């Protein structure tokens, strides 16, 4: 070993020792903070499916590849990071001796070839990612960047480290070529040979370049160890765990969508008959009241901003960005952690748990952080502003987009639950809706005995459950479908089409009450449970004696469809629920309904969030429309998984939209830009919101917003559709 090798070896050993010590400390800190969360025992079930899903999503990059170029570039960088870590290990042999290499595989041509290819592709990948980050930097003139609010230096730092480590990998090999110590043939390692051709014949070059490579790599490890909230780097390790522990790992996509998680206390679902707010946790009021999976979510955020780029609230000038919300919770959790780890925290009555002695040596900043309310305005020192919390439509675009499976909607609703149930703090205008739900069983406060009024004037009888027993489908009409003029037309259209197709169905009539979706999404789990239990009881009675496959329900409202199909199971109600567009598509494809007159003028389709993203029903409404117009749909730029919310979900239908541009107006502008004269929808709330948007733009004469069922009825029974149009005038 020459003097140069003695120096490079000492340098490499010293910086590695420091980096490893700091990294161990950082990992212990991360684990300690994540363990502060509440139990989540359900995250340990079905480990085989979890492992499979984790491998598919990470190795296959299935979620990342939804953004093709970024996904492909990131895949090469990820593979480069894993495989080329072996070359960092090899550098420890090279600092000691220029002829050094990895034992066993270090002289194998296949290893040389594989690392050469991965090195080149990794270089291309990281340059692409760097270009994308630069092109989308928040400081660029014009436009809203998905990186707005991200810690940009961290992204640049990580990317430069990857670039330099890759470059120095080739420099080391180049020096080996130049000094004739390289064992791999030219055909397997052409880039290394090309680099070697321009490097001098310097014997110590290999050791010096290897030392630089180790110093860069260990500097990276030191920096991320000193910054445990640096998700852009830590996600390389945490993403595997976050994906493994995601909820519903068997779901093909959007695992955090569909059903909301039940309210839990100490990891167990809360039973409202026995729950006591002084003993049980009602929602989330402190960051440590999230489950440990919530804290793992916050720690894993890469700050990529994909969620932000799709969020309807953020895109219309509201203060909510799902990314910034996650980052605020993460930073708060880690800043408060020393206080919590010292034994601090408030019990459920608000009393401090720690003794003065336990808190005596704490940093004042940690103590100050512990005093900040989780929900509060900037003046109150709040972590999350109430306007942020209440801007969410629970559309799920953030969950759909997140490459590391963060479950934003659950976290937002958990915080709402505490605000509504314990603080009674929510937008006051939504109070009327909640009162109506409690008193009348529907959000409009309509008299329950008018639930069947929509059947008046139909030329066939609509039977009630009980009057007939052998119905195939229970037609769940929903509150909008029963009381709201425009939605009533959809209800009539569906009933007419089912009757035309010879489908036997029955309704609950006055026996139906609100599914509870708006109560649950606003955070009033108590009212949701009350309504849902009543409905589950009624439905179980209606289907008594039937196996699950024959407990079929068809619903026109995606919110009811989602709640009945995905959430009633939490209360003992197991049903086969379909959306009316799915049933209609089936009836058309099996020849039970025959479109005869093409609907012309151009049709575009708006995907309702709770039908599309939350439940993956994208094709059936398009199939129905394709048959009805006997041609191609005109798609909006934001469609299917990336559809843009109408603004009504998450109980936003009953809140005023005071900040920024109206979401429905943004969507209507996009729909109108397609030139289509008909905007087809599959949800009564979307119908109301988009109609309001069209009317607000004074375009009611040029553009019509109607349900898919009404479009089909026009094609199947043109005269009937015209008659119904006249019989049931549209309100507003
Ligand atoms: S659910 Fe929709 S509105 Fe809410 S934060 Fe996510 S993207 Fe934004
Ligand atoms: S998409 Fe996921 S990882 Fe990316 S910024 Fe949003 S929450 Fe973080």
Describe this structure in words.
There is one protein chain. This protein is mainly alpha-helical and 732 residues long. It is 52% helix and 4% strand. It has 29 helices and nine strands. It has helices at 3-34, 47-59, 68-96, 109-135, 152-178, 190-198, 205-226, 231-244, 292-300, 306-310, 312-315, 322-341, 356-359, 364-370, 386-390, 397-401, 408-421, 430-440, 479-483, 485-501, 517-522, 525-542, 558-567, 580-589, 619-629, 663-673, 684-696, 708-716, 718-727; strands spanning 264-265, 268-269, 473-476, 505-506, 552-555, 576-579, 603-605, 678-681, 704-707. Helix 27 (684-696) links the parallel strand 8 and strand 9 (704-707). The longest helix is centred in the first third of the chain and has 32 residues, at 3-34. The radius of gyration is 30 Å and the shape is globular. The N and C termini lie far apart (88 Å). One iron/sulfur cluster binds at residues 301-307, 322-323, 326, 401-402, 404, 406.
